[in-house]
Write the structure tokens for this entry.
Amino acid sequence: MKIGYKITFLGTDLVLAVTLCVLTAMIIRQNLLAERLAAMAKEDVVQELMLADSNVINLLKTQNDTLLQDLEGQVNTSRMLLRKNGAPRLSEETVAWNAVNQVSKQETEIQLPKLLLGDEWIGKTDDFGTFSPVVDELTALTGTTCTIFQRMNDAGDMLRVATSVKKLDGKRAVGTYIPGSSPVARALVDGQTYRGRAFVVNDWYLTVYEPIKNPEGRIIGALYVGIKQTGVKALMDALRQTTVGKTGGLIVLGAEGRDEGKVIVSADPALAGKTLTGQKLPDGRDIYAEMIAKTKQNNGEPVNFSYSAAGKNGTPEPYLASASLFAPWGWTVIVSAPLSDYAARVQHITEELDGMRSWVLMLSGFFALVAVLASFLFSRTLSNPVQAVVGSLEELANGDTRRDPDQKLVARKDEIGILARSGVRLLLAQREKTAAAKAIARGDLDTKITPASDRDELGKALLEMLENLRGLVSEIRRSAEGIASSSHQVSAATQALSQGATQQAASLEEITSSLTEIGSQTQANAEHAVTANRYTSEASGNAVTGNDEMRRMLAAMSEINDTSRNIGSIIKVVDEIAFQTNLLALNAAVEAARAGTHGKGFAVVAEEVRNLAGRSAKAARETAQLIEGSIAQVQQGSTLSDRTAAQLEAISAAVAQAAEITEDIAKASSQQADGISQVNVGLAQIEQVTHQNTASAEQTAAAASELDGQARRLREAVSRFRMTDDRDGAAQWTNRNALPSSENQGEDDESGEPREREDGYASW
């Protein structure tokens, strides 16, 4: 590929690479920014939902506190109404009741005493058209419900005998009772006032139950004041109108008991009273049951949820929700909104980012096109002169030096001008070396060659070739003249060599006869030396054997000495045993003496043992003395044996030295005999060679004549080379195969091998 195309492609690739990097980084950052914006938007939605949830919870707390304070005032009012109508007491007269458990709906027929207020019976009024004292008065004054209970039994069941609470059929809930197992009944039986949330007939109320006592202080009933949780219209309307985002809203579900999962408050009237738990989403989640369970676990703190549910057009879309438990009322407050309500925020920013990316793409494409055009124009201005220089260098590489350089390129001040000027210098040097080579080819060795620099290998090689050629021609001329003169000397030398060979043959015959006689005498001496060496070797062997026997005797003496020492140790042990035995005998005698007549026999035995111990000690001492004398004699014998062994070793060493000397004499005599035999053989060979030299001298004379003719032809061949002076400017040169001349005779070393001369070449 041409350099212009390379520059164009390189510039384009760099711009495109940078552009792609910028675009890639921008797209990655845009995607990251879009994801971050989506996360931020989602976080904003969650925060907004949590805020709305908290606001609802705070509203419910405020309403709950307000209602509880109102109930306290209404309890006081009901207590005043009760006193105004007379103190409650039980009559002797009874009345039959069909009591209905408000929880299980179980009916029970029962006879109870009439509950009187003063002297008037409350009655069994179940119709709201008939006035019922106290309860209707309080409801008319405050709008709250009121009930008077009568205790049914010791279990604490509380029967409604007068009430303003309605049943589902629109009548008063007279005849229904609270079972004694309920928290309300247990508190009343214990004489305590119950305040809080309670299930009344068929709905949940905020209530206050206060026990009613007779003059004797016995609990005979209870007074109730309550407000229905959903009975505050302003609160319910505020909850239903709560909105989040565009389409999000509020829904309140029951969180416990029979109302768990039941819709209590919703902006959609169609959902009122429905149970939403058990309805699973497309992904299999029972989201409302999950919300109720997690809000209970979180102790009233809000819990965030993310799920997919059907949107307006029926297709699933993501929803976000925040749920909290309002424990005083047993409500789970859920605020939810589809994520699409907040998508407009992210969509606007995403559109702006897409527009920015389009502008960046357009600008990148424009700059890439400009870069391609600039790279193309720049490559044209650079590649054309480079191609011109390359063409000239290719012609020069092919050996064509006829083309003149382009002066425009040479005159440039940049790197191309430097390259062109370098090509001009190369062209001139090539022309100069070509002219020199042609002159040398014509035989003109006076041509001058000057290297362009110290690194001009071709110039230095041509100069060295020219100098070597000059030296070679000069040396050949001198050698030719030397060969011509030496051929005459060789002829004369061969004649003298033939005469000397004849005289050598006569002298060799006399030397051979003398050496034969000397050889016979030397052979006899060698035989006698061998015999003496054999006798000496036998004597040396006997001396070594005697020395070995003496060493074994010394070892035996040493063992006897060690054994004697061991026996002495044993005798000492025996002596110690005798001493201990004597002590034991003495102790036995003492004990026998103490025993009196009973120990006489034992005393005799002890005396005998004592005598034996004394004799053993005496014998041990005598044996020890004998062994000590034996040890002394053994040591004396060992000393004499050591001296004898030393003498034998000295004799053995002397005999060994004599044997070595005799052996050396025998070997020297044998070698002399062999040497004389070899000398005889060498003399015979010299005689044969002398006869051959005589014949060779005649052949050498004929060769010298032929050599003279060849020397004349060599001078004629060298005469075609022209040199001003063979001695000035020509290097010394000696052919390795040339014969010695009168100028280099005596330069060889003693080995006859070629050695280095001062000019670096080998000489013979």
Confidence is low (pLDDT under 50) at residues 726-764. Residues 457-595 form the longest helix (139 residues).
